[in-house]
Amino acid sequence: MNENQASNKKFALTTPLYYVNDVPHIGSAYTTMIADVIARWKRLQGYSVMFITGTDEHGQKIQRTAEAKGLAPQEHCDQIVTSFESLWDKLNIHYDRFSRTTAKPHQSIVKEFFQRVWDQGDIYLDQQIGWYCVACEEFKEERELTENGSCQIHTNLKAEWRDEENYFFRLSKYQQKLAEFYAEKPEFIRPESRRNEVLSFLKQGLQDFSISRVNLDWGFPVPSDPNHTIYVWFDALLGYITALLDPNDEPTLKNALSRWWPINLHLIGKDILRFHAIYWPAMLMSAGLPLPEQVFGHGFLTKDGLKMGKSLGNTLDPFDLLNRYSADAVRYYFIKEIEFGKDGDFNETRFVNILNADLANDLGNLLNRTLGMVQKYCKGKGPALKATEIDNNNPLKIIGEGLSERVRECLEALKFNQACEEIFSLIRACNKFIDESAPWSLYKEKKQAEVEEILYAVLESVRLAAYLLSPIIPNLSTRIYQQLGFSVDFNDFELVNRNFSFKDQTKWGNFPGNPNLSKPEPIFTKLEPPSDA
Ligand SMILES: Nc1ncnc2c1ncn2[C@@H]1O[C@H](COP(=O)(O)OP(=O)(O)OP(=O)(O)O)[C@@H](O)[C@H]1O
Ligand SMILES: [Zn+2]
Q1: 136 is in an annotated binding site
Q2: What percent of the chain has pLDDT over 70?
Q3: Cα(58) to centroid of ligand 1, in Å?
Q4: What is the overall mean pLDDT for the chain?
Q5: Segment (H or E) for 462
Q6: 47 lines ligand 1 (CB under 6 A)
Q7: pLDDT of residue 303 exceeding 90
């Protein structure tokens, strides 16, 4: 057993459980791609990973959407879920659990949790009067509405006036406890700007929120009062707990919480920050459960400055993108192009330009021309050297030796675009090094040892870059490793962990050089600019 398998480090992370009011779009895909990168990165390091995604299927918006289509709500949900699953498949997302809030065991978990909160005296009946955004499934303060009476995000939909009896959750009781918790755990809400948003919301004073709806069938009944349906958000957040049940487990909180709780990381968009950073920890406090370690609220993919979303309908179709470009291309673009946490726009011309520059030219061509030179100058045999035989002033050795640590720091801090920058600084240095040291001239001058040292340093740098990029572009990394003569598939986590330990693979120059290199084949074909550019 190698050191990776011997470790019992665990990491559990979630994407939001996406609302099935419509098929997924590139925004839903964005969070899921990031989660997949983190999960893969942790697996490379030998962690046991529990990666949860899924769907949130109850509530008014789903009931209305299904009605409009002439379908029973469950039928509608089943249809939409298929498209989520198929998108994750196309994007090469390796999740461990797909949690659906209409799954049978979920109702038992919700019931048990509700009872715990009830027993704490944290639930009471009162009148709810105010504006409701059906798309957010949330009551809004009057001051939060636009001039047209919509919420800030769903500008095409007027908020509805509600005056009804609801059960309320005593959020106000947790004001002080939450303040203490945020102070003790400054890392709980990331990035800093989101944490500040939450702190200023807290300062305004927390109001109790309603956790039931009347005149709505599509949801779980309140256990003590079946005229009420449990509010979709109360139910949805608990989907993270239900997801932790093993398939044969009896659906109890105890079983669900026994192995993976608390969750290490909830990845979300900033639209649902309040639910995850305020409501959720307060609900867990009430139920007497440990709190998650971190909530990261990233920015929006926007179109003309507005958040892309299912309700606004201004989305980019990921299926269309994936029919035209590979999963690795789509993953790389969004991870490299957008500073995680900030908003970002999608532009297809820029998409093509970045992929051509980084993956086709800088990385792909580099491997191709270096392998070509090995064919010509080394009779096809990879130069077998060791780092110790390489001059300490070799620019690739200088960058390569500290690279893994720098990338590790970036990835641990969820600075994905910086991690890409670090890796590509080595790739770009390789191209410069070849141009400047001109191995073709050295070969003519019969300086074989120098030629081999150059080619070795470049191939070793490409190998290291491919390893570090493997959570982002697993298929390309696999192709690179295979051309370097290794039998590996970065989608086969067990195989990778068994034969390629993180410690060995992240060292520049540890690799003795593989004499059995494949024939060079382009790993990434240059993309045509989009026709309407
Ligand atoms: N434009 C976007 N940019 C980044 N992430 C997004 C975007 N839209 C949705 N997401 C991701 O999906 C989550 C919201 O899921 P939801 O199912 O409510 O999708 P939605 O398209 O935002 O729906 P709606 O438009 O109805 O509000 C966000 O928290 C985020 O993780
Ligand atoms: Zn809204």
Answers
A1: yes
A2: 98
A3: 16
A4: 94
A5: helix 448-469
A6: no
A7: no
Tell me whether residue 77 is annotated as binding.
Answer: no
Is there a single domain that holds both residue 378 and residue 320?
A: no
Establish if 392 belongs to a structural domain.
yes
Name the residue at shortest CA distance from atom 22 of ligand 1: 309
Distance between Cα 19 and ligand 1 center (Å): 8
Distance, CA of 494 to CA of 474 (rounded, Å): 14
- Is it the case that residue 113 has pLDDT exceeding 60? yes
Checking if the pLDDT of 6 tops 50, the result is no
Angle at 83 between CA 81 and CA 89, to 5 degrees: 105
Identify which of 33, 58, 152, 310 to mutate to test ligand 1's pocket (most ligand atoms within 8 A of the CB).
310
| Domain span at 391 | 348-505
Indicate if 43 and 167 belong to the same structural domain.
Answer: yes
Residue 255 lies in a domain: yes
Question: Which residues lie below 8 Å from residue 384, measured CB to CB, with a gap of 6+?
Answer: 456, 512, 513, 514, 515
The contacts of residue 72 (CB under 8 Å, 6+ apart) are: 66
pLDDT at 532 > cutoff 50:
yes
310 and 356 assigned to the same domain: no
ipTM over the 0.95 cut-off: yes
CATH number at residue 484: 1.10.730.10
Q: What is the CATH number of the domain that holds 212?
A: 3.40.50.620
Cβ pair 165, 214 in contact under 8 A: yes
Judged against a pLDDT cut of 90, whether residue 516 lies above it is answered with: no
| CA of 490 relative to ligand 1 center, distance in Å | 29
> Residues 399, 441: one domain?
yes
Distances (CA, A) of 168 to 121, 211, 219, 391, 533: 11, 5, 17, 70, 53
Q: What is the pLDDT of residues 381-416, one digit of tens each?
A: 888 777 778 889 999 999 999 999 999 999 999 999
* Domain identity same for 312 and 398: no
Query: In terms of domains, do 361 and 317 share one?
Result: no
Asked if the structure places residue 293 within a domain, the reply is: yes
Total domains in the chain come to 2
User: Taking 60 as the threshold, does the pLDDT of residue 533 lie above it?
Assistant: no
Residue 94 marked ligand-binding: no
Q: Is 154 annotated as a binding residue?
A: yes
512 within a domain of the structure (yes/no): no
Residue in 13, 19, 91, 156 to alter for ligand 1 test, most ligand atoms within 8 A of Cβ: 19
Peptide bond before residue 522 is cis, with ω within 30 degrees of 0: no
